[in-house]
Design goal:
This protein has about 260 residues and is an alpha+beta fold. Helix content is about 55%, strand content about 15%. The longest helix is centred in the first third of the chain and has 22 residues, at about 1-25. The termini are far apart.
């Protein structure tokens, strides 16, 4: 009996030690900016909603913070967590001193990579990269919109994600400094995608079609509609879709941007 009790105590202590070790996975560094020492601390918090949090301390005061919640019920290895910690830590260092960054991605490069991850269903990685992009492009409505979509897709925060996407679209239309172009179609795309996650097909289709009004060649929107079994109407509706006039006129209209 005593031996059994002793074994139980040892197992409890080992379990506690493992939990403590998990709670304190992190990375610390320091850098001097403007003559002041900045201490950067990034750690993984497993209690409550798992997240990676980075804090900057100057003279003992927190001056900046990044909180990146991790997907609910995600199964992440210790190496996965360490990699995410490293990425977020370096992103903060780059934000504090852009010249310290090993590489500097352009907005277009960030966007291409984020969409690449999304196309392959790697929402967690897209979410992490988009958060990094927002560090350097805080007021960019496109990264804000993708944040909303990824908040819904990766974090399952559907309503909050939808509201973020809608605010990004409002910001795009309300800010005269933003050059208006076909990129607006992606703002409608993300709203539509969130509606799909919320099982609201009707509103999703409405927003996809709004996006096509801006850019009728947006392949992401066309793909989403195709998945739903929805195709664009043929040029001549009184003829069969397979009629050669519909096929070739349709191709021509798409090529010159009229469809």
């Amino acid at each position: 009996m005593l031996l059994f009790a002793a074994l139980c105590i040892i197992m409890i202590e080992m379990s506690f030690q493992r939990e403590v070790a998990t709670l304190h996975i992190g990375h610390d560094s320091a850098m001097t900016i403007g003559g002041k020492k900045h201490f950067i601390q990034t750690e993984y918090l497993s209690t409550g909603r798992p997240m990676i949090i980075t804090k900057v301390f100057v003279d003992g005061t927190v001056t900046d913070t990044i909180k990146a919640p991790l997907p609910k019920n995600a199964t992440l290895s210790e190496n996965d967590i360490k990699e995410k910690i490293q990425i977020q830590h370096e992103a903060m260092r780059s934000k504090l001193n852009p010249e310290s960054a090993d590489t500097t991605r352009s907005k277009a490069e960030y966007m291409r990579k984020i969409r690449w991850f999304i196309d392959r269903g790697r929402f967690d990685e897209a979410y992490t990269l988009n958060n990094e992009a927002l560090l350097f492009n805080k007021n960019n409505p496109f990264f804000q919109s993708f944040y909303g979509y990824l908040d819904a897709a990766a974090m399952k925060n559907h309503q909050a994600g939808l509201e973020t996407c809608k605010r990004a679209l409002e910001k795009y239309h309300g800010d005269p400094r933003i050059k208006k172009n076909k990129g607006e179609s992606f703002l409608h795309l993300n709203i539509g995608r969130v509606y799909l996650l919320m099982d609201n097909r009707e509103f999703a289709v409405v927003n996809f079609r709004e996006g096509l009004k801006v850019d009728n060649r947006n392949r992401d929107i066309i793909t989403e509609l195709a998945k739903l079994g929805i195709r664009r109407p043929p040029p001549f509706r009184f003829l069969a879709r397979e009629h050669f006039l519909n096929k070739y006129i349709g191709l021509l209209m798409t090529k010159i941007g009229l469809r």
